[in-house]
């Protein structure tokens, strides 16, 4: 019993991987589906809305078309919609019309590439014709999260500032070491001790320069 349950849990996620986080609807005799290509989707990153179109098998026992579509999986995708269907993406009072790019490996799957610059809910209006069936459908992909949702341990702008501060500190340390060397050269210490001090100072400068170069490289 336990082995069967484990196998079931392993099989189920794979079976529904395409539909995860996607929205399904019906247009005439077709099943349509949209969702983000990369999830979780965050603002400020190039992404794409995936659009699937396939024939819908009749559901006499399910009167609502959308429920019928949701009960089925994407298969036998409809090709040739690149020129007949477009996506109007809307965020509040702003909109953009995006062309569809077909997936060359999965017939009936298309992409509308976009970089959502702000977080929130977007509306995707699918406009045109699927073969001979008109489509004018509003769909809602999952919410776009704020970029800081996946930044770790701190937002990238703070990290950049920390790098700048680190470089500044290294440069100041090099300046201090140079001043120390100059003071040793001008001191009235014994010659041998003076040379030793200068040597230590030069080694310190060399170490600081190497550290600075490594930090810039990183």
* Count of folded domains: 2
* Rg (C-alpha, Å): 31 Å
Q: Summarize the amount of helix as a percent range.
A: 25-40%
Q: What's the CATH H-level superfamily name of the largest domain?
A: Immunoglobulins
Indicate the overall shape.
rod-shaped
Alpha carbon gap, first and last residue = 52 Å
Output the number of helix runs: 4
Mean pLDDT across the residues is: 79
Category by helix and strand content: alpha+beta
Order of helices and strands: HEEEHEEEEEEHH
Secondary structure tally: strands: 9
The residue ranges in which pLDDT falls below 50 over 5 or more consecutive positions are 1-19, 158-162
Relevant terms:
rod-shaped; 2 domains; Immunoglobulin-like; 5-stranded antiparallel sheet; alpha+beta; 36% helix; 218 residues; disordered N terminus
Overview of this protein structure:
The longest helix is centred in the last third of the chain and has 31 residues, at 156-186. This protein has helices spanning 2-15, 65-70, 156-186, 191-217; strands at 23-27, 30-36, 47-55, 85-91, 94-98, 101-102, 109-114, 123-130, 133-139. The protein contains four helices and nine strands. The two termini are 52 Å apart. The chain folds into two domains: 18-149, Immunoglobulins (Immunoglobulin-like, Sandwich); 156-217. Mean pLDDT is 79; it is low at 1-19 and 158-162. It is an alpha+beta fold and 218 residues long. The strands form two sheets. It has a five-stranded antiparallel β-sheet with strand order 1-2-3-7-6. Strand 8 and strand 9 (133-139) form a beta hairpin.
């Amino acid at each position: 019993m336990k082995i069967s349950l484990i196998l079931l849990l392993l099989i189920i996620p794979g079976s529904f991987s395409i539909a995860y986080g996607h929205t399904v609807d019906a247009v005439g005799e077709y099943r349509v589906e949209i969702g983000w290509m990369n999830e979780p989707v965050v603002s400020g990153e190039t992404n794409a809305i995936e659009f699937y179109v396939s024939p819908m098998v009749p559901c006499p026992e399910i009167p609502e078309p959308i429920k019928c579509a949701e009960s089925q999986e994407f298969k036998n995708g409809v090709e040739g919609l690149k020129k007949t269907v477009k996506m109007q993406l809307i965020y509040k009072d702003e909109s953009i019309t995006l062309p569809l790019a077909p997936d060359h490996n999965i017939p009936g799957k298309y992409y509308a590439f976009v970089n959502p610059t702000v977080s929130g809910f977007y509306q995707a209006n699918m406009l045109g014709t699927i073969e001979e069936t008109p489509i004018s459908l509003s769909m809602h992909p999952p919410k776009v999260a704020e970029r800081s949702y996946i930044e770790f341990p701190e937002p990238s702008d703070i990290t950049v500032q920390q790098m700048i501060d680190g470089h500044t500190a290294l440069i100041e340390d090099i300046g201090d070491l140079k001043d120390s060397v100059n003071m040793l050269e001008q001191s009235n210490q014994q010659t041998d001790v003076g040379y030793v001090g200068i040597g230590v100072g030069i080694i310190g400068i060399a170490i600081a320069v190497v550290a600075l170069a490594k930090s810039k490289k990183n």
